[in-house]
Amino acid sequence: MSHGSVSPFPSPRPARILRLAGVLAVLAAAALSSASADTNSARYKFEGNKWLALDLAVGDVRAETIRFDWPATLMRMKTGYKATVKIANGSSQQARVGIAIALIDKDLKLIGAGTVGTTLGTIDPGTTAQFTVDFKDVTARLEQADQFYIALETR
């Protein structure tokens, strides 16, 4: 560019630079938090319509219990398939979690799956939260569930 010519790009203004720096800082923090995600999983015997104890943790965040609620008929309407998972945050920091459940039959074939997690909030230190996993799209063989895998991810 020759001396005295005008650049086709506007000169950066301090406010713009500060906004850009703020956006980059937020993106960097998000990248670091997702990079620090950790996952653990386990397989258990399936039993419907009762609370089952779990022994699954990622650090100080624990999946304590699970209950599979299999359909019942209420006022001639069949309820859906779902699992309720209780998570305890025993850490000193807020936790975001993700939960995945895969149901398998006695031949170890996958017959259904579902996921859920914290979307807008977190689990405060020293508290518990309950998550519901709906099994709604692949349900034809769920009555044949024999075992399940559960994965817990913390972020």
Walk me through what this model shows:
The protein has one domain: Immunoglobulin-like, CATH 2.60.40. 14% of the residues lie in helices and 45% in strands. It has one helix at residues 14-35; strands at 38-45, 51-58, 61-69, 73-74, 77-78, 81-89, 97-104, 110-117, 128-135, 147-154. The chain starts with 13 loop residues before the first helix and ends with a strand. 17% of the residues are buried. The chain is mainly beta. It is built from 1 helix and 10 strands; from the N terminus they run H-E-E-E-E-E-E-E-E-E-E. It is globular, with a radius of gyration of 23 Å. The strands form 3 sheets. It has a 4-stranded antiparallel beta sheet with strand order 1-10-7-8, with no helix packed on it.
Key attributes of the depicted protein:
4-stranded antiparallel sheet, Immunoglobulin-like, single chain, 155 residues, 1 helix, 14% helix, mainly beta, globular
CATH fold name: Immunoglobulin-like
Global shape:
globular
The overall pLDDT, averaged over residues, is: 83
Fraction of helical residues: 10-25%
Provide the spatial order of strands within the biggest beta sheet.
1-10-7-8
C-alpha-based Rg, rounded: 23 Å
Major sheet attributes: 4 strands, antiparallel
Count of spatially separate domains: 1
Uncertain spans: 15-35
CATH-defined architecture: Sandwich
Strand content: over 45%
Query: Helix tally?
Result: 1
Mind telling me the CATH class? Mainly Beta
Please tally the β strands and state the result: 10
Distance between the termini: 49 Å
